[in-house]
Amino acid sequence: MSLITRATTELAASGIEDARREARLLLEIAFGMTTGWQLGHGDSVIAEPDLFLSLVARRTRGEPVAYLAGKQGFWTLDLAVSADTLIPRADTETLIETLLAHRPQREAVRSVLDLGTGTGCLLLAALSEYPHATGIGVDRIPAATALAAANARTNGLAERCSFIVSRWDDAISGRFDVVLSNPPYIPGCDIPDLMRDVIDYEPLSALDGGADGLDDYRVLMPALTRLLAPGGLAVFEIGIGQDKTVPELGRSAGLRVADIRSDLGGHPRAVVFTL
């Protein structure tokens, strides 16, 4: 039995969908063998398969592929990931698409604040698109800000940003052209229903938004009135079914809802606020 067949069988038995594709991906992570190379050469040349088999075993227990690889692509960036941060999702790229739609002139943005920065994905993606901008990323977890700073260095953006350990905006002064945030927004009662890859490995503090999923929006909406510069905008991620409640929280805080945009799945995902 080939290694790929063995791994496919083990992954499928543990409930992993598209097990053969994942087996080939894990072989690439372990040895750098692309799928094309594997199809042309097979896996018979692998003399010491222990690393590959250990990755397969971890994946059968539900550990996300991004953690096994130690990295995840986001926008045009390659970002290191760890169990201290959420894995960046394609849905979150909707925030960057929305920002670019509202600020197409690359000279128009000079300052960016990212609240709950995690890997730094939103801040670093924004800085990659706005070459004259500088930014600050905030996270309450020191290991997250350290990882984000490392990602900034890896992507050549370290000189244009800094990272602060703080609870939301507590340590922030000044006003910003752009404020970005993907706060926790999953209602606490829905946490047990998440995929095991998520609840067993990703930080629940970055997911749990309280009883109705809105706890952190209630803190952040009033804060935007002092954080946004004149003419500035905030782009916030929201969860499914929150396209009415989150905008209403913003309006109640004195903000204007300028736009609501959907992700590729058709779900409202990004809300734009202005003063």
From TrEMBL:
S-adenosyl-L-methionine binds at residues 116-120, 139, 168, 182. Transmembrane segments: none annotated. Substrate binds at residues 182-185. GO terms for biological process: methylation. SUPFAM superfamilies: S-adenosyl-L-methionine-dependent methyltransferases. Residues 3-70 form the Release factor glutamine methyltransferase N-terminal domain. InterPro entries: DNA_methylase_N6_adenine_CS, HemK-like, N5-glutamine_MTase, PrmC_N, RF_methyltr_PrmC, SAM-dependent_MTases_sf, Small_mtfrase_dom. PROSITE patterns: N6_MTASE. GO terms for molecular function: peptide chain release factor N(5)-glutamine methyltransferase activity. It is an enzyme of class 2 (transferase). Pfam families: MTS, PrmC_N. Residues 95-189 form the Methyltransferase small domain. Its EC number is 2.1.1.297. It comes from the Bacteria. Keywords: Methyltransferase, S-adenosyl-L-methionine, Transferase. It catalyses: L-glutaminyl-[peptide chain release factor] + S-adenosyl-L-methionine = N(5)-methyl-L-glutaminyl-[peptide chain release factor] + S-adenosyl-L-homocysteine + H(+). CDD domains: AdoMet_MTases (cd02440). Belongs to the protein N5-glutamine methyltransferase family. PrmC subfamily. PANTHER family: HEMK METHYLTRANSFERASE (PTHR18895), MTRF1L RELEASE FACTOR GLUTAMINE METHYLTRANSFERASE (PTHR18895:SF74). Methylates the class 1 translation termination release factors RF1/PrfA and RF2/PrfB on the glutamine residue of the universally conserved GGQ motif. NCBIfam families: hemK_fam (TIGR00536), RF_mod_PrmC (TIGR03534). This is Release factor glutamine methyltransferase. It comes from Acetobacter musti.
